[in-house]
Amino acid sequence: MTREKAVVSWSSGKDSAYALHRVRTEGRLEVVALLTTVTEAYARVAMHGVRESILDEQARAAGLPLEKVPIPSPCPNAVYEERFEAALSRWKARGATKVVFGDLFLEDIRAYREKQLARVGLEGVFPLWRRDTAELARAMLREGFRATLVCVDPRKLPAAFAGRAFDEALLADLPAGVDPCGENGEFHTCVHGGPVFSRDIPVSPGESVLREGFAFADLLPAGAARSA
After folding, report:
1. Can you state the percent helix, strand and coil of the chain, rounding each to 5?
2. How far is CA 109 from CA 13, 56, 58, 100, 126, in A?
3. What whole-number distance in Å separates Cα of residue 120 and Cα of residue 82?
4. Contact call for residues 149 and 191 (beta carbons, < 8 A)
5. N or C: less crowded end of the chain, CB within 10 Å?
């Protein structure tokens, strides 16, 4: 039976990676591409701050085409919607019918995504929806995902957590009220190992900076010079 084609909304982090893993494991959809918004000014993944060079390595290790959607920084919502929907329309023209997201439980975010998809005639798939996030975080670790916290909201989590590995020690140290997967915006990650990849992506720590109210911990491709 022919499987429906899907693209993955790829943040470069653990949740979108685990969503890709679940979809591939279930086998009902054929994933044909990753789709990522990248800031034009910084050449980095929007919000996460991950370098394009690492994003490119993720796509190669996942064995999937990558479409980067360039957006300004800051980005008016109307501009984001116009550019993201244009990219979705291109993949629809190539036969995609579904878009996979790593969202966990925020109803307003899911409703927003589904409204946006409806405008271009696509359907959303949310393979992690409503899973207990403490159990989900540990499932990611059990199944071999390796990630680093690359962006922290200091209003919700101490800035010193930026740059830490997403592991059992981190989960044990999270303050009360912080979601184990960071779903309320407490932190964002960059995934660099796990079963969605054919190989680990070698990275090394770069500089940590405070920018626009967030703590960012830079990750460098192996062998690259330290630079913010």
Report:
1. 30, 30, 40
2. 17, 26, 25, 14, 12
3. 11
4. no
5. N
Is-contact 46 38, C-beta < 8 A?
Answer: yes
φ and ψ of 203, to 5 deg: -135, 160
Q: Which helix (H) or strand (E) holds 38?
A: strand 29-39
| pLDDT one-digit tens code per residue, 206-216 | 999 999 899 99
Exposure of 93 by Cβ count < 10 A (0-12 exposed, 13-18 middle, 19+ buried)?
A: exposed
The string of pLDDT tens digits covering residues 42-83 is 899 998 999 999 999 999 999 999 999 999 988 999 999 999
Model confidence, pTM: 0.95
Enumerate domains of the chain plus CATH numbers. Answer: 4-125 (3.40.50.620), 135-221 (no CATH)
Residue count (the chain): 228
Angstrom distance (rounded) from CA 105 to CA 127: 11
Rg (CA), the chain: 17
